[in-house]
Each structure stands twice: as structure tokens, then as C-alpha cells.
Design goal:
Elements: E1 2-4, E2 8-10, H1 26-31, E3 35-40, H2 44-54, H3 58-65, E4 72-75, E5 80-89, E6 95-104, E7 108-113, H4 119-130, H5 138-151, H6 154-173, H7 181-200, H8 202-219, E8 227-228, E9 231-232, H9 236-307, H10 322-344
Parallel strand pairs: 3-7
Antiparallel strand pairs: 1-2, 1-3, 4-5, 5-6, 6-7, 8-9
Length: 348
């Protein structure tokens, strides 16, 4: 995709197949200033030709073709090389990182990415809306891409915030049918960690880019926000400062969500532990009652079992019940002694 305010957006499968405007050649398009070329999934042969035409350093070409995932801002002799990561949702609603490789010069910007992404079209619409008011320079287009990628994290963070609030409220209410709460907390914490991983290194990239732009502006004759040909020449450093503020705010929110989730998980596990303790106490109470009943019956079973054998029963030759009462009394004494012993041994 080739874009310039004079020609608009021009697309093609390759440089040779690009739909050129009437009375224009590819050389004419490349001699213009402040144009933007976006390339999707270039091959090794195409990358060699592009590197030769735009004087791209071999290290930069190697990082692009090897799908370098580390976000950074490298300064070369004639351009700045910016790696900035975005993300897409796949068919399973998982986050799939996509890295933008931006080569920013004073006269043009080249962007590389592998796979179709919506950010390019959004930035192009934004450029069309503002090109009558500001001077659309390569630094500003690079800022617009970074800002669009940064803003694309906002809906995901809002979903995380809603999920965190719901989890926190449910943990405080604590109902017995919350068997999936640990799974919900773990899934939400996984999303938070993914967001922190994708946003964590962006601050350093923006800071490095701001430093380079401030140095270039101080060395250039163009002042900040100067009017050039009826349009405002943007102070890109201020725009990048806004991107930095957004990133820091989102990271602070994510750290807060992580704290809330850790507290909710701890509270939920504490409630489960209390519930298990209460259940254990109830079980012990029932077992204690059964122990009392067994303690009472044990001496009776012993005596009755002893005299139930083929032995002579005491008092069998007497017609009164004296021996019977003595036996019952001895059983009662055995029961009392068993209860006393059980209490001493803390069995009940």
C-alpha cells in the first residue's frame, strides 16, 4: 500500500503490480516527500530489492525477516527502526501477537508486518481526516500507528476490569455453588499477565523515540508546532508523550487488577478452608457421639459374650434375682469406668 496526500491510497500485490495513477511512474511516487509504504508479508527476494532501493541496513532486514519480537527503537545513519507489537484475536479468542516494523526517515516511512491487521486502515482513515490541518510527516504517521496499537488494548482491559469487579463481588458474597471460581480467577490472571507482557516494554520504546525526536527537533530549523504552507507542523514529541501516559495508565490498572485478583483468590481459599474446618468439626462431633455409644456398649458386650459361652451361669441354682442385679450393677460400673477412662484419654 502506497499513500500520499496527493495520490491517496494505491494498492497492489507487489511494486510491479501497483495501480499507478495516470501520468505517473513508480519513480515519480518515490521522489515525493512524506509518503507511506506499507508491506504485508514480504518475501526474501522482495526484501532484498526493498533494502537496495531504500538503503536499509542488513541488520534491519534480518530483524524483519526473522520476525524479531523484542520491542525496540534503533537509530541508524539515515533512519530510525521501531519494533512495536500489537495483538489479534484468533478463532479461539486467544491473543496472537503481531509485530510492526517501522522504518522512519525524514522523507518517508516504511511499515512491515506479517499478516493482515486492521490497524493500517484505521491509521489511514485518521490521516485522511487530519491531512488538511496538519503536515503529515513520517514521524507523525509512526506515532499514529503506535497510538492505534496502544488504543487497541483498551477494550481488552475494560473486559478484564468488568471480570475483576464481578469476581471480587462474588467472592465477598460467597455462595456454595461457586465451584468454577478458581478457574475464573486463573483465566483472568492469565489475561492480565498477557496484557502486562505486551505493554511492559512499550514504555521504553516510546521514551527512546521521544528522546531521538527531541534531539532532531532541537537540531532542525523547524520549531515545534510551526505553521508550514498553511498547515501545522506537529510536535510529535507531545503526541508520543500522550501515548506514554496511556501505556502507564493501563499498566497501573493492570497491576491493580492483579492485586485485586490475588486478594480475591486468597479470600476464596480462606472461605473454603473455613468451610472445610466447619465440616470437619461437625464430623468429629458425630464421631464423638458414636464413641460414647460404643464405650457404653463395649463392657456389656464383653460380659454378655463371656457368659454366653458354655460355662456355668452364676446364680443359676437360686430362685431369687440377686445375681442378676449384681451382674447389671457390674455392667453399669464398667460403663462408668469406661466413660471416665475415655474422658481422661480425650477420646470424647
Amino acid at each position: 500500500m502506497y499513500y500520499h496526500p496527493d495520490t491517496g491510497s494505491i494498492r497492489g500485490r507487489s511494486f510491479t503490480d501497483i495501480n499507478l495513477p495516470p501520468n505517473m511512474t513508480l519513480e515519480t511516487l518515490l521522489t515525493k516527500e512524506n509518503f507511506w509504504i506499507d508491506l504485508t508479508s514480504p518475501s526474501n527476494e522482495e526484501m532484498k530489492i526493498i533494502s537496495k532501493v531504500f538503503h536499509i541496513h542488513p541488520l534491519t532486514a534480518e530483524d524483519i525477516m526473522s520476525h524479531e519480537i523484542r520491542e525496540k527503537c534503533d537509530v541508524f545513519r539515515h533512519y530510525m527502526f521501531v519494533c512495536y507489537r500489537a495483538f489479534l484475536h484468533d478463532c479461539e479468542q486467544l491473543l496472537k501477537p503481531v509485530t510492526f516494523y517501522n522504518i522512519v526517515t525524514k522523507k518517508h516511512i516504511l511499515t512491515f508486518h506479517f499478516g493482515h491487521v486492521p490497524h493500517v486502515n484505521h491509521v489511514q482513515q485518521r490521516v485522511k481526516q487530519l491531512q488538511d490541518y496538519i503536515e503529515v510527516v513520517p514521524d507523525w504517521i509512526n506515532y499514529a500507528i503506535m497510538d492505534e496499537i496502544t488504543d487497541s488494548f483498551a477494550p481488552m482491559i475494560q473486559q478484564i476490569e468488568s471480570e475483576v469487579d464481578a469476581i471480587d463481588d462474588l467472592v465477598l458474597l460467597y455462595k456454595s455453588d461457586q465451584s468454577d471460581m478458581i478457574l475464573r480467577i486463573g483465566t483472568c490472571r492469565k489475561k492480565v499477565i498477557q496484557m502486562v507482557r505486551l505493554l511492559g516494554t512499550k514504555v521504553e520504546v516510546v521514551r527512546g523515540l521521544m528522546k531521538r525526536i527531541v534531539e532532531d527537533v532541537s537540531a532542525s530549523s523547524i520549531q515545534q508546532d510551526e505553521i508550514v504552507d498553511g498547515k501545522i507542523y506537529p510536535d510529535v514529541g507531545l503526541y508520543l508523550g500522550d501515548v506514554q501516559d496511556h501505556i502507564l495508565t493501563m499498566l497501573q490498572n493492570l497491576n491493580h487488577y492483579e492485586t485485586v485478583l490475588a486478594r480475591s483468590e486468597s479470600n476464596y481459599l480462606a472461605r473454603i478452608s473455613i468451610e472445610l474446618t466447619q465440616t470437619s468439626n461437625s464430623t468429629n462431633h458425630v464421631i464423638g457421639r458414636l464413641t460414647i455409644f460404643a464405650t457404653v456398649l463395649l463392657p456389656m458386650n464383653l460380659v454378655t459374650g463371656l457368659w454366653g459361652m458354655n460355662v456355668k451361669v452364676p446364680g443359676k441354682d437360686y430362685d431369687n434375682l440377686i445375681y442378676f442385679f449384681w451382674i447389671v450393677l457390674s455392667l453399669a460400673v464398667f460403663a462408668i469406668l469406661s466413660l471416665t477412662l475415655a474422658k481422661r484419654l480425650k477420646l470424647i
